[in-house]
């Protein structure tokens, strides 16, 4: 009876651990999917040639990111003190991962997005936007690494059904398309403001001041002539992979589901083709972005292909074991 109770207790404990890691990976993936909400905050006004912010999107992004960061903070603080009390790992190891988790939940988008919008509205070019973009991108490394490490632990648990594992892979693929699509939208707004700045440098009678919708004055025809929507002439300014975002009018929309689905479709389509359909300009950061899509799409494909082989091998092993048990009973 004691052995049977112990076996049932171990089974219940294993079942609890499995669901714990499933919920952990899911929560981290959902948290990562909320980060790109900040990239949909800028809204372009083609008639006024200015940028405003979607305040409703801004409030929702800050709220949900803050809620999930707080939950994650409670989780890893409890885990840190539990592991410190058990003394299974060295103090240096524990503090290293503690600082890593702090980096993961730093409110970088909440703090920097307002600065990025201010820089985008300036009529004079500065490198500050590029630097701020790099800071936001850097935080994605630790967040993605955390999801990957959680998935590796999840793969070690053999009792999780294959359909749940496959669902995770499919969700991660959709998540990657969503993230790259949101970046594409965000970089498209920045590329358009670059065209406006270049127009102000080369056109007589260009509008003066900033690209703030509350402080617009001057001649807008210079910007319209230099940065037309319908023209594909690259002799004046080449929008490259960002031209489609402007021609689709998605940059002017405040309909979030419309922007989300359209941008995610763009991201999934180019991840699936490894970026082979992207027609880039000679702009260096645009080519770096396209290169990232190609590399990440290939890595996702190899990762999912490797997992598929593992799942097939496990299914075959279980089938052989069941067949062997049936022969022994016979």
TrEMBL record:
Pfam families from the UniProt entry: Ion_trans
Membrane-protein topology: Multi-pass membrane protein
Keyword Transmembrane: yes
Record key words, sorted: Ion channel, Ion transport, Membrane, Transmembrane, Transmembrane helix, Transport
Compartments, as annotated in UniProt: Membrane
InterPro entries: Ion_trans_dom (IPR005821)
Major location (coarse): membrane
KW Transmembrane helix (keyword) present: yes
GO CC field: membrane
TM helices/strands, residue ranges: 20-41, 61-81, 93-117, 129-149, 170-187, 283-305
Domain of life: Eukaryota
Residues in Ion transport domain copies: 16-315
Gene Ontology terms: biological process: monoatomic ion transmembrane transport
Designated name of the protein: Ion transport domain-containing protein
Record organism: Quercus rubra
């Amino acid at each position: 009876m004691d052995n049977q109770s112990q076996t049932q207790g171990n089974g219940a404990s294993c079942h609890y651990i499995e669901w714990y890691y499933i919920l952990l990976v899911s929560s981290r993936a959902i948290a990562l999917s909320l980060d790109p909400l900040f990239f949909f905050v800028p809204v372009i006004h083609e008639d006024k040639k200015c940028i405003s912010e979607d305040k409703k999107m801004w409030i929702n992004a800050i709220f949900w990111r803050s809620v999930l960061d707080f939950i994650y903070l409670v989780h890893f603080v409890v885990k840190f003190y539990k592991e410190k009390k058990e003394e299974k790992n060295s103090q240096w190891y524990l503090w290293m991962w503690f600082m890593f988790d702090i980096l993961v939940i730093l409110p970088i988008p909440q703090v920097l997005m307002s600065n990025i919008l201010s820089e985008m509205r300036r009529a004079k070019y500065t490198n500050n936007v590029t630097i701020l973009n790099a800071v936001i991108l850097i935080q994605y490394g630790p967040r993605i690494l955390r999801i990957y490490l959680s998935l590796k632990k999840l793969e070690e648990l053999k009792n999780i059904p294959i359909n749940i594992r496959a669902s995770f892979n499919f969700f991660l693929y959709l998540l990657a398309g969503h993230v790259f699509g949101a970046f594409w939208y965000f970089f498209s707004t920045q590329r358009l403001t670059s065209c406006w700045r270049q127009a102000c440098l080369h056109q007589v009678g260009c509008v003066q001041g900033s690209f703030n919708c509350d402080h617009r004055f001057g001649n807008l025809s210079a910007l319209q002539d230099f940065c037309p929507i319908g023209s594909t002439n690259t002799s004046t300014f080449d929008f490259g992979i960002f031209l489609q975002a402007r021609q689709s009018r998605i940059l002017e929309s405040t309909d979030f589901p419309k922007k989300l689905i359209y941008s995610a479709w763009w991201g999934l389509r180019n991840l699936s083709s490894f970026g082979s359909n992207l027609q880039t300009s000679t702009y260096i950061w645009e080519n770096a972005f396209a290169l990232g899509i190609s590399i990440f799409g290939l890595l996702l494909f190899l990762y999912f292909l490797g997992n598929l082989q593992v799942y097939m091998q496990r299914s075959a092993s279980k089938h052989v074991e069941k067949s062997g048990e049936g022969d022994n009973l016979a």
